[in-house]
Amino acid sequence: MKTNNQQPTTNNQRVPAGHTLWLGIETSCDETSAAVVQSGSEVLSNIIASQVDIHRRFGGVVPEIASRQHLELVNGVVAEALQAAGTELGDLTGIAVTNGPGLVGALVVGIATAKAMAFAASLPLLGINHMAGHIYANFLQSPQPEFPFVCLVVSGGHTDIVYMPEHLSFELLGRTRDDAAGEVFDKTARAMGLGYPGGPVIDRLAAEGNPAAVDFPRARLEEGSFDFSFSGLKTAVLRYFQSNPDVPPEDTAASFQRAVVDVLAERAFRACDDKGVERLVLAGGVAVNSELRRRFAAEAEQRGIELHIPAPILCTDNAAMIASVAHFRYLRGDSDPLTLDADANLPL
Ligand SMILES: Nc1ncnc2c1ncn2[C@@H]1O[C@H](COP(=O)(O)OP(=O)(O)OP(=O)(O)O)[C@@H](O)[C@H]1O
Ligand SMILES: [Mg+2]
To answer: What pLDDT digit, counting tens, does each position of 329-341 carry?
Structure first.
């Protein structure tokens, strides 16, 4: 782990020496969230205002509507997070905000809020990578994963296999070449007329279906690759659904879900073997999926791999995970200027 020798200082008498208290703000997509986290691990508050009901009627997130909603919600959500944590601005070590990747118009709302607060209260500011946040959700619960580990990040926009030898060191081993895992759940559900967001709907439906009913394709890439490709599966499910109207949608959903989980598990456990690590960490909204959790738990036990999965509320977008990353970056000596900007494609 990279650290510097300077112990962080805070304004707060109630925060024990050497500890930090970060306010996190997250507005990268359609959740407006603010959280107060002590020392990167103890969640004092984590307020999440979801816009899912507003976007549902459009079958997906409408960026312009998301930005306006963030504008309306952000001040109230931040105030609620501070109040729920029993914290005032002057108690904080600093303010952390997601600055990418995500929707630019949505990101800038959180960034402007964080900058204004940091300036007004003379507090340090840190721009945090949203995908690092998803991974660091694992440090918000006990036991925390030890290094090194392999992480499978499965979210609405990303499907990445990442090797982490130490804190804040991310080696990308593989990624999707087309759709992300969450995206393929959402698009498949929409094609089957099941509603939005697709992940939770397919998860529920699949519980009633037979996962062996249809043998959907598992994309094979070059030998040794950790990349993913889900577009062929998406097309195969759509074709099957359209030409087999009498097959129960439960069976199609369960077979589709099994195909996704098979591919994710094959890559993730092979990456552990390849890197010689015995610790696997999951992150992102698709890690809520019940078949995925069951399958990974069973296979990890069988292979003697220690598995970490965040609680469902910490898998999907939230600001506590952003505040957690800030703690570790602050210990390393990082800070960002008030000119911090959004980067829609910010790499890990
Ligand atoms: N039970 C579930 N099964 C499968 N997928 C799920 C489940 N619950 C949520 N998801 C999926 O998780 C995704 C949302 O996760 P998350 O909030 O991490 O993504 P995002 O923030 O939109 O994308 P990114 O983090 O890549 O920017 C959606 O695609 C949703 O369908
Ligand atoms: Mg996300």
So the answer is: 999 999 999 999 9
Report the run of H or E that residue 74 belongs to, with start and end: helix 63-85
Residue 324 contacts residue 93 (beta carbons within 8 Å): no
pLDDT in tens, 275-317: 999 999 999 999 999 999 999 999 999 999 999 999 999 999 9
**CA end-to-end span of the chain, whole Å?**
17
Nearest CA to ligand 1 atom 30: 199
**Domains of the chain in sequence order:** 21-136+316-331 (3.30.420.40), 146-309 (3.30.420.40)
The residues facing 321 across adjacent strands are none
pLDDT tens per residue, range 177-213: 999 999 999 999 999 999 989 999 999 999 999 999 9
Residue closest to 289 by CA, chosen among 252, 271, 264: 264
User: Given ligand 1 and candidates 196, 294, 316, which is best to mutate, with the most ligand atoms within 8 Å of its CB?
Assistant: 316
The pairing of beta strand 306-308 with beta strand 279-283: parallel
Identify which ligand lies nearest to the alpha carbon of 203: 1
Is the pTM higher than 0.90? The answer reads yes
Q: Say how many Å lie between the CA of residue 288 and the centre of ligand 2.
A: 12
CA of 345 from ligand 2 middle (Å) equals 13
pLDDT digits (tens, 9 = 90+) for 3-48: 333 333 344 455 666 799 999 999 999 999 999 999 999 999 999 9
Pick from 184, 338, 159, 187: which is nearest to 266 by CA?
Answer: 159
- Ligand nearest to the backbone CA of 321: 2
C-beta atoms surrounding 18 within 10 Å: 11
Could you identify the atom of ligand 1 that is nearest to the CA of residue 157?
A: 26
